[in-house]
Specification:
heterodimer, A: alpha/beta, eight-stranded mixed beta sheet, four-stranded antiparallel beta sheet, B: alpha/beta
Chain lengths: ~375, ~325
């Protein structure tokens, strides 16, 4: 049985009232459709990642899971227990959040020891002062900090150390599910690597279930077993990370992944991205992606495609059969709407032959080339 | 390099402060050729934005600027503010990091475009150019304030203002896509490269994102603790990095190690590196010895790569 079950989760924010377009008409409420009917589950020890661009609703899902935002509709169950609007302390301990920005997540005027003792005090865990100190200190060690860090205020430690402290604070309550909202977004490359390593270790040691919310696909590739791609409040593609992140089928997933720059100067390719994300106040009718989709047909504007099982994954697309067929995609890409060839470099003019001779390398070949450098 | 458009020699930027002066940029030298995209990559605090600000002479009054910035027959470190005004925005243009905070929040977009683009706004051809770079929706709603537009639209608008208002030959792009989503980033990067081709611009592209650097730059300088530790062509930098920091940085990228395996993190922290007498990377470097801790290595040419390291031969 799944540890976390989320079904039909929906959040709409009422902004105000739209002015009637016709005289005498009643004003309609102006709604932001942040999350629309999202369902997923998470097994014990599993890592699920939700990827998507800003405004697609991924952070709203995190807030609803931990009870900071009340869903408009839908249910959240952990271990078979439904978590509603009124949650007991025990309920709240089940899911813990690691918030996006570690700098704003802690009290700047108190030291880290104070910050880490707070959850224990609030939840009446660790009976005595000595017991709390023991719990805090062992957790601090587990995330790779020392007792010396505990005496520091947030301003006195580095971004990576702060990220660890915020993680330790969430783990102190022994949650069943850890929700990580962009845990590495504000960190430098070298520091990011240490935090990702820590998450890999914790996953191994504690068998934690994690919901990782990120826009960094390379971090998702590293950590996640399964991946869900969101666009304008809905999941458009879910499945094993190997499938979704390596061979995306949904037209949006394809474009999103193609937009991720590859750290290989021999594989230069910037896709020709059409249009912009539509407004969540007035999402396009039917499939929200249809105005930007190269494979659009009449049905796409008429009805919203449901997330259905298709081959090895779930896909929300009216043309699921065609978009998962490489031949169909290849035939379409020949048109000017598809991905254009690598752009010209300044040296191409003088050194055209050199560029032509370069073998087309892939992400994998970069990975292989690295160990040789040491 | 024959006839570089910009030649920076021993550029030094020092900021005063309560705890004594901080050297943010320490004897940085590089050249940018005509039509070239030169990347500056480094982590936060490495001094890359200070280089950008120094080139525009927009440093705070308390900052100390030293060295030589050779641009169009002038030394921009020495020239007076009046001369600088003829260069700033006209010969050297800047694309800022945060499009949202770089326009006036209380004036309509149309009015602000009028300030910078002037008569161009009436020119049919110029309007066509703006539409062709995806600014059609912005022109249609020119009575709106900047907050009515997305970050991607505003960043495209700022690039249009920077490149079309005057005829700059050098564009400074200080992390222009850091606050943008991946798909919008792709649009903005394509626009920058299109502008480069159309106007034969040179671009100084500052970023912390190695993947973006790999996609857009021709040559790259790597900064650490205020020092430029390596300059190489983008292919050499990724295929055969010479400086230990560059090697560690490229190895630390998530794509450099197989799935579900630990990343090659760099031990230690970068904080305080710019105060060290020797090589700034010495405390974190596996090859560091006493010499590294006491003396800053001089730049050394190895093939087409310039590298500052005492032990660069050891590896080869």
């Amino acid at each position: 049985m799944s540890l976390l079950e989320v079904s039909g989760l929906t959040k709409q924010y009422v902004l105000g009232q739209a002015r009637p377009t016709v005289r005498g008409e009643k004003p309609r409420p102006l709604m932001v459709h942040a999350v629309e009917g999202v369902s997923f589950d998470l097994a014990k020890g599993e890592v699920l990642t939700i990827v998507g661009e800003s405004g697609c609703g991924k952070s709203t899902i995190a807030k609803m899971l931990v009870g900071l935002v009340t869903p408009t509709a839908g249910t959240i169950r952990v271990d078979g227990r439904e978590l509603g609007e009124e949650r007991t302390q025990a309920d709240r301990r089940l899911i813990q959040l690691v918030s996006q920005n570690p700098w704003s997540a802690l009290n700047r005027r108190r030291n880290l020891r104070h910050a880490l003792e707070q959850p224990l005090l609030a939840h009446h865990l660790g009976g005595s002062k000595a017991e709390r100190t023991r719990l805090v200190e062992s957790m601090v060690e587990r995330v790779g900090l020392t007792n010396g860090h505990l005496a520091q205020r947030p301003a006195g430690v580095s971004g990576g150390e702060l990220a660890r402290a915020v993680l330790a604070r969430a783990l102190l309550l022994s949650p069943k599910v850890l929700v990580l909202d962009e845990p590495t977004a504000s960190l430098d490359v070298s520091v990011k690597a240490t935090v990702v390593n820590l998450l890999l270790d914790l996953r191994e040691e504690l068998g934690l279930s994690m919901l990782l919310i990120t826009h960094e696909i390379d971090i998702a590739r590293k950590l996640a077993d399964r991946t869900a791609v969101m666009y304008l409040g809905r999941m458009v593609e879910t499945g094993l990370s190997e499938a979704v992140l390596e061979q995306p089928h949904h037209p949006y997933s394809r474009m999103l992944l193609a937009s991720m720059p590859v750290a290989d100067p021999h594989a230069r390719e910037l896709p020709d991205v059409k249009g912009e994300v539509a407004s969540a106040i007035a999402p396009p009718p039917g499939c929200a992606y249809h105005p930007r989709c190269p494979y659009v047909q009449d049905a796409c504007a008429r009805s919203i495609p449901l997330l259905r099982i298709h081959q090895d994954r779930m896909l929300a697309c009216h043309r699921a059969d065609e978009v998962s067929n490489p031949e169909f995609i290849a035939a379409h890409s020949a048109r000017p709407t598809g991905v254009v060839p690598p752009h010209a470099s300044a040296r191409d003019v003088t050194d055209a032959t050199l560029v032509d001779e370069m073998p087309p390398s892939t992400l994998a070949s970069v990975a292989e080339a690295q160990p040789a450098e040491h | 390099m024959t006839d570089p458009i910009l030649a920076v020699e021993d550029l030094t930027v020092r900021y005063g402060g309560a705890n004594g002066a901080t050297t943010a940029v320490n004897r940085v030298s590089f050249q940018v050729a005509r039509g070239e995209v030169f990347g500056l990559v480094g982590e936060s605090g490495s001094g890359k934005s200070s280089v950008c600000t120094a080139l525009m002479r927009l440093l705070p009054r308390s900052a100390h600027l030293g060295g030589v910035i050779r641009f169009e027959g002038k030394d921009l470190v020495q020239v007076n503010e009046k001369t600088m005004r003829a260069v700033r925005g006209r010969r050297i243009a800047l694309v800022p990091q945060q499009p949202m905070t770089s326009l006036s929040p209380t004036s309509s977009i149309g009015r602000q475009m009028g300030w910078y683009l002037g008569d161009l706004m009436q020119d049919e051809q110029a309007r066509d150019t703006l539409t062709s770079i995806g600014l059609g929706p912005v022109l249609d709603r020119s009575a709106y304030l900047p907050q009515g537009f997305s970050g991607g639209q505003l960043q495209r608008l700022l690039i249009a203002i920077a490149t079309l208002a005057h005829q700059p030959c050098l564009l400074l792009a200080d992390e222009p896509t850091t606050t943008l989503d991946a798909t919008v980033q792709a649009q903005v990067l394509r626009l920058l490269l299109d502008m480069r081709t159309k106007l034969n611009l040179s671009i100084l592209y500052v970023s912390h994102d190695l993947a973006v650097i790999a996609q857009v730059c021709d040559r790259v300088g790597v900064m650490y603790g205020g020092r430029l530790v390596e300059i190489a062509s983008v292919e050499d930098l990724f295929d055969a990095p010479k400086h230990p920091y560059t090697q560690a940085l490229i190895a630390a990228m998530p794509s450099s190690s197989p799935r579900h395996e630990r990343l090659h993190a760099i031990p230690g922290v970068a904080a305080g590196a710019n105060r060290l007498p020797g090589c700034p990377f010495a405390p974190r470097c596996p090859r560091a010895d006493t010499l590294c801790r006491t003396t800053m290595p001089e730049p050394e040419m190895i093939g087409a790569t310039t590298v500052c390291c005492h032990h660069v031969e050891v590896r080869a």
